[in-house]
Every structure is written in structure tokens, then in C-alpha cells.
Amino acid sequence: MPRAVADFVLAPADKATLQGWLRKGLTPNRLAQRARILLSLADHVPPKEISAQYGTSVASVFRWRARYQEMGIAGLSDLPRPGQPRKLSQKKVREILTLTTQRIPAEATHWSLRLMARYAGTTIHQVQQVWQAADLKPHRLQNFKISNDPDFAQKVVDVVGLYMNPPENAMVLSVDEKTQIQALDRTQPMLPLRPGQIERRTHDYKRHGTASLYAAFDILTGNVIGRITTRHRAKEFLQFLRQIDRATPAELDLHVILDNSSTHKTKEVKAWLSAHPRFKLHFTPTSASWLNAVERWFAQLERRALHRGVFGSVPELRDAIRKFIDAHNAYSAKPFQWTKSADAILAKVERAKNSINGRNQN
Length: 362
Fold this sequence. Notes:
By secondary structure, this protein is an alpha/beta fold. The protein has helices at residues 12-23, 29-42, 47-54, 58-71, 90-102, 113-120, 124-134, 152-164, 234-247, 267-275, 294-306, 314-332, 342-361; strands at 170-186, 205-218, 224-229, 253-258, 279-283. Helix 2 packs across helix 4, helix 6 packs across helix 7 (124-134) and helix 8 (152-164) packs antiparallel against helix 13 (342-361).
């Protein structure tokens, strides 16, 4: 004959507490299951049926019964584990650092926590601790390119000087063009945002043509002068210079920061600039678009107006860009602040060159 299970008594206050746990949506699953086990025992449900109903073992049912009888409600929480977690030796730490910085796993292009834990014979948590202490982030990747412009230092000093100490009785304009902006339309209507559902769109799209945008960013006010064109030739650039000339006070000199595009240096452009001496051009180094302040504004345009935009035609795209420029000038424009000195930039570039040269020599 199987031995009869002794009666289980659950204090009324404890029963109310356990029922309250189950009513709360934030109670951890492990505590909720232990509460159900004790409430079922109090209702005289056999342990074998409880284990089958909640997907646990009979031994687990008896364990939580015993814990409650010994410690009360507090006994349902996890007890602290004995002893300290195993610490890594300095040799193992050096091994993880060496693998991370000097080796590539056979099955991937970079290390993950799980891969490193397997190769190094440690736990994922231990690898995470080593990487955090060394500020290593193998999952991240950034793009860079070091300019080979022979006049790099001179141009950096010139441009940064305009940002940090703009001349009096003058405007400093950061100018560039964003080319081939596509008017993209989705193949089906978008599903709008609503409670419990994010906005959704189809992965495929229709192309309706492109447009180019010339922009001049005033670093003292943050205002933008824009011109939308169908092409980006010297002819369009010259038209934009004329627009800047009309849109700015005639008594001010104009210091224009721009890149080394061939459309900025044609015979027609040079002739026009000679006839308008208040325009003074300052060229950024080659492969150094990050030095042009208007690039940050272009990033805002892409993120806020273009990336999620739906345009059924090029005119719709043009209207959206114009509205963004108007809204920016009316509500978001603010002075541009450059904080890194030319010396700091040049020192950082020199360190990068030395790092590359040292790696190539190895």
C-alpha cells in the first residue's frame, strides 16, 4: 500500500499572498509556479497530479512543500548559492585577450561571447567580464579612411579655424550636394502605427526617379539654403552660388567650405568667383567629408525625412525636402559648435597612421 500523504496546511494570510502573486502580471514564472504548487497542495491535490499539471517532478513538489513548512513564504525564494564563482587566472585572461585581438575564429569573421567561451574553455559571463574590463567590442565595426591629401594639415587648420573662430563681418557656409536621392514608393500601402503594433511597410519598392540637393549650412545660425536639381554638374553648382549670393546680405564676405569635386573648379566657376570676390572658397582634404559641417545636417535629412518617406513621384520628393528645410529653419536651426582643435585631429590621424604602419610591418 502506498504511504498516504500527510495533510498540508497553508496559513490563510500566506494563501492570500500566493493568490496575489498569481493575479500580478509581473510575478516571475518560477515564483508563480511554486505558488500554484502550494495552493494545489492546500486543495488536497495529490503531488503526482500536481507534477503532471505543471510540468515538474514529484520530488520538486515535495521540496517546495518542505521549504514552506520550514521557512514559510520566504522559503519560496531562491537560496544564495554556496561559495564564490570560479575566478579566471591571469593566464586565461591573457589568452582571451590574445584570441580576441590577434585571432579570427574559423567559423566567423569576428568573435561572439559564445564562440570565445567555447574556444577559451570558460563561461560566457567570464568572457563578458574580460571584454568589459578591456573595453573590447568585437561585435562593433566602424568605417574610416585616412586622407592622403598632401595639404591635409593645412586644410584642417584652415577649416577648423573657421569653425572655432569665424571671422567678423562674414558668413561661414558649409556647402555640399546630396546626389541621387531616390523617390521610393512602396508596392502596398503602409500599415499605420497603433497600440500593440509598430508601423509596417513592404520590403520591396518602386523607383520613380531621383533628385539632387545642394545645401549651404550657416554655422552661426544653423539655417540652411537649399536648391533641388535634376543633375549635379558645374552648371547646377554655379546656379546655387548665384542663389547664395541673392539670399545673403551683400555687405558680408562669404567663406564657403566645400569638398574637392571637379564641378567646383571648372573654368566657368572660377570666372564667376573672380567677378564676386566676397566668395572665398575653403576646400576640405580629400577623403575627409566628416570635416564638412553640412554632412551632419544631411544625416538629419536622411533620418527624419527620407528613410521612412513614401514618394509617388519626384515632385513629391522635392516637396518633402523643401518642407523639411523650411521646418528646420523655423524650429530646429541652432549654431554649429566644433569642439576638437586642429592639433587634436592631426595627432589622432598620426596615431592611426602609426597603428596601420605597425600592423603592416608585423
